[in-house]
Amino acid sequence: MLKIQEAIVVEGRYDKNTLEQFVDTVILETRGFGIFNDGERLELLRRIAEKRGLIILTDSDGAGFVIRNYLKGALPPQQVKHAYIPDCPGKERRKRYPGKEGKLGVEGMPPAVLEQALRRAGAVFVEPSVSEAAPPALSKTDLYLWGLSGGAGSREKRQRLLKKLGLPEHLSTNALLPVLSALYDREALLETLEAL
Length: 196
What we know:
Blueprint lengths: L1 E2 L3 E4 L2 H8 L2 E2 L2 E3 L9 H14 L1 E4 L4 H13 L5 E4 L27 H11 L18 H6 L8 H12 L7 H11 L2 H10 L1
Parallel strand pairs: 1-3, 2-4, 2-5, 5-6
């Protein structure tokens, strides 16, 4: 598993699933062209870019470049890196027919090609250090124990937390976990939760 400092922005969930197989970092979706009308998601991308940097990894087709160019103009350039995949004809396994331009997208690329694209973009690969004890990662169990999921009133408490932290109100519990991990440490979150 490759650990990368920067968060990665992809177009959709299948791209995200492909990367999650071999990359350990926060991976966010634009939901295709949905990013154009989602100011909350764009603000979230800005905050994560400021905190840890972003790598934009979109398909090599026309739609991918439209999304990339939109993000290029909307995000601070010094906090964003661009990873490009090669033009490869073909179709993804889950699709019956190839895309409009007949090219493979991020989801159809082999891990070695994606790793090479991330390295060319200048991704910072983090090597685990034996001497450094990493703080425990946030988990779904933490969210449950803090009353943010799976219990009576958890939805309301989660909504209050999202509002307090200035995060998009429609983040699901599954989407909330990597966002909180990218922006906050455990102690800061506990202080915020106590203040609620």
